[in-house]
TrEMBL record, chain A:
<dbReference type="InterPro" id="IPR004165">
    <property type="entry name" value="CoA_trans_fam_I"/>
</dbReference>
<comment type="similarity">
    <text>Belongs to the 3-oxoacid CoA-transferase subunit B family.</text>
</comment>
<dbReference type="InterPro" id="IPR004164">
    <property type="entry name" value="CoA_transf_AS"/>
</dbReference>
<dbReference type="GO" id="GO:0008410">
    <property type="term" value="F:CoA-transferase activity"/>
</dbReference>
<dbReference type="InterPro" id="IPR012791">
    <property type="entry name" value="3-oxoacid_CoA-transf_B"/>
</dbReference>
<dbReference type="Pfam" id="PF01144">
    <property type="entry name" value="CoA_trans"/>
</dbReference>
<dbReference type="InterPro" id="IPR037171">
    <property type="entry name" value="NagB/RpiA_transferase-like"/>
</dbReference>
<protein>
    <submittedName>
        <fullName>CoA transferase subunit B</fullName>
    </submittedName>
</protein>
<keyword id="KW-0808">Transferase</keyword>
TrEMBL record, chain B:
<dbReference type="Pfam" id="PF01144">
    <property type="entry name" value="CoA_trans"/>
</dbReference>
<dbReference type="InterPro" id="IPR004165">
    <property type="entry name" value="CoA_trans_fam_I"/>
</dbReference>
<protein>
    <submittedName>
        <fullName>CoA transferase subunit A</fullName>
    </submittedName>
</protein>
<dbReference type="InterPro" id="IPR037171">
    <property type="entry name" value="NagB/RpiA_transferase-like"/>
</dbReference>
<dbReference type="InterPro" id="IPR012792">
    <property type="entry name" value="3-oxoacid_CoA-transf_A"/>
</dbReference>
<keyword id="KW-0808">Transferase</keyword>
<dbReference type="GO" id="GO:0008410">
    <property type="term" value="F:CoA-transferase activity"/>
</dbReference>
Amino acid sequence: MLKKQQIAQRIAKEVKNGQYINLGIGIPTLVANYIPEDLEIVLQSENGLLGIGPFPTEEQIDPDLINAGKQTITMVKGSVLFNSAESFAMIRGGHVHLTILGAMEVSENGDIANWKIPGKMVKGMGGAMDLVASAENIIVAMQHCSKSGESKLLKSCSLPITGIRCVKKIVTDLAVLEVDPEGGFILKERAPGVSVEEIKSKTEGKLIVKGEIPEMEF
Amino acid sequence: MINKTVKDANEAVQDIPSGAFLMMGGFGLSGIPENCISALLQRDIKDLTIVSNNAGVDDFGIGLLLQKRMVKKMISSYVGENAEFERQLLSGELEVDLIPQGTLAERVRAGGAGIPAFFTPAGVGTEVAEGKEIREFDGKLYLMERWLRSDFSLVKAWKGDTAGNLIFKGTARNFNPMMAAAGKITIAEVEELVPAGELDPNQIHTPGIYVQRIFEGKNYEKRIEQRTVRS
């Protein structure tokens, strides 16, 4: 089973040179730590920045410079600041190439649920609905099962949906999977030491296994 | 040049009535109208509707207005940092419209720009789409969203001039420019107020035509929600 950092490390391998990328809160934020330095990429922050840099030193902290998770940040050289309407014009307009976000549930046709648990949690969707409705490539980073052991890869989502038929790839602590446009999770890689049988038993939705499934490489 | 200056926050918000429809700039606690919120807390008004991306935290920002039960309804995209908000919502004391962030920004922009409705893909197939017109354009589904306009918009800028022109700093810009344009009366508080003519017209973000009142705020706390430093 992968640690959160390893999930982020594996997702970083999906990043391509020249991409503008939006990272969600949680594991997705960690992806930035593993993107190879020779790749030229730009991180978008939905609250109005292209060019997120590392966290600041104590001396650099600026309350007027935060990311979407409200964390203090810095800007890289060549950054640009803009308003929220412009930010989502970039997202809706398809200018952001890759969106990486967390999820509570994903269904075998690529639906994602990550914003609400009726009666329990009301936080809101933030920018997630705009992102999943518009990005050309959406990768989900999440645990394969909930804390109580229930599969989060389902036939259909039980929680309120954030977006329909939008998830392309999922990286969990157990596996890398792609969503088949016809329906189903195509198993591509397994975490070191994790068997196909274990992944099958922890995937409620349809799991498609073709040939030998290699272990992940980092 | 028209002089939009008022003395302070108390003068700026003195005629906001109970039941008013307000917009407040800010993302998290960054770029919120701190002085105007403090002045509103001194007023004996209630049943406010507030459009704001977030709802502050329990003891700062809009959270203070919630504690005093001055808010009837919030129109927001993310309210996760506020336990009092969640309590009032789950108990039915507070109404809330949760709106995708990009849709919220565009609805406010549309309000200021005189566009009564538009189509967006965000929320198609979700409960956000319930009761809304869905149309297909070039093979993809979109839903219709309406503009938002306010009685009063309360915005915060870094620098401003007496003509109401505004310059923002960092990510504190966020919703402030669109809200300024969408207000019948827009009140701008700034960290530094200068005479008209001293700001470089090339660098102004929000033209003063959108601003009716401006004042220099004081004692900005600029509280940080997630103080994160390099290890």
